[in-house]
Amino acid sequence: MIRYTPSYILADWNSRVFDFNQPNFYLPLWEHFAREAVAWDRGHLESINDTSSINNHILQGFSTRKQVHKALARVFSQTGASTLTGGFLRHCGIKQWTDLDKPIPIKGWDRDVPFEGDVLQRQMRSPGPNDCHPDAVFGQYASIEFDADWLRWRFHVHYGYSHDSSSWRASLDQKPRESLYHFGQRIPDFIELLFEPEDQRGAELRSYRNQQYATAHRAVRDLFYDELRGTGERLLRAIMDMPSVAGMRNRHIILTDARLRTIEGWIKRDCQEHVAKKGETDG
To answer: Cα angle vertex 213, ends 188, 270, to 5°?
Structure first.
């Protein structure tokens, strides 16, 4: 049995207090409130979702433990408020701030579930899982969610083309009557079956490369508005192909006359292609 104290969860998020006697793994508590929210009003799950843009008929997913903590803290912060979340908490018996001091007992174990998988730009095994997009074999991120329809946990590996916004996912489902803990123990093997083998050195190089890409991407995005969506991507690829010392310095792109002429050439070519396509459409 796990005993969660909502006031501690809220205080820990706001003030970063820490009590070794308190459980610090919050997925079982999220499942408790997720089930309550589905039973209370299936069509308005924003009562507990920590975002205003999510579909109100599904529950949000999590990529990190911090996100789970934040979501629960946001819910508890609405105690006593005249809001949808405040009404949901009253339904759960949390009507005023003193109610947050009452422990919530949850069946299960206070044992970790390894769902924070680093799969960014890790290459999947061939053939990839998507027959219609065989080159979409690069990991993006991993997430776990409690499915509002099946009332079970699902773990997702999101993947797509290299450094591309398009995304698909491969999923692992919790079995009927399988505990969250035992479901979580199947996650690492599921990840490894999807991806090419990678040792620690390979993982470190991939992480370093991802950091370099993120830095270059921010520099390009902050410097240019890529109206035609093409020039900026080519510039980013060119920077990534350079030695880091030659391409970037102190998170800024090193600008030379030769590079400026190259950029001007790209912009001119993109404009010509844009005009040509517009002419074909108008014709």
So the answer is: 125
**Distance, CA of 189 to CA of 219 (rounded, Å):** 37
Q: Are 156 and 145 in contact (CB under 8 A)?
A: yes
Beta partners for residue 159, in sequence order: 139, 168
**Residues for the chain: how many in total?**
283
Q: The pTM is what?
A: 0.84
Instruction: Enumerate residue ranges in the chain where pLDDT < 70.
Output: 51-54, 226-231, 243-248, 250, 282-283
**Cis geometry, peptide bond prior to residue 134 (ω within 30 degrees of 0):** no
Cβ atoms of residues 263 and 235 within 8 Å? yes
pLDDT digits (tens, 9 = 90+) for 205-225: 999 989 888 888 888 777 777
CA-based nearest residue to 141, from 154, 161, 157, 163: 157
User: What tokens does 252 get?
Assistant: 């800024």
Other CB atoms within a 10 A radius of the CB of residue 268 amount to 11
Domain-by-domain residue ranges, the chain?
2-106, 113-198, 201-282
> Tokens at residue 79, please?
């105690």
CA atoms within 13 A on the CB side of 28: 24
Residues 6+ apart with CB under 8 A from 239: 216, 219, 220, 247, 248, 253
Distance between CA 44 and CA 56 in Å, rounded?
A: 5
Helices (H), 141-256: 180-185, 187-194, 200-223, 231-241, 244-247
Closest CA to 203 of 119, 142, 113, 126: 119
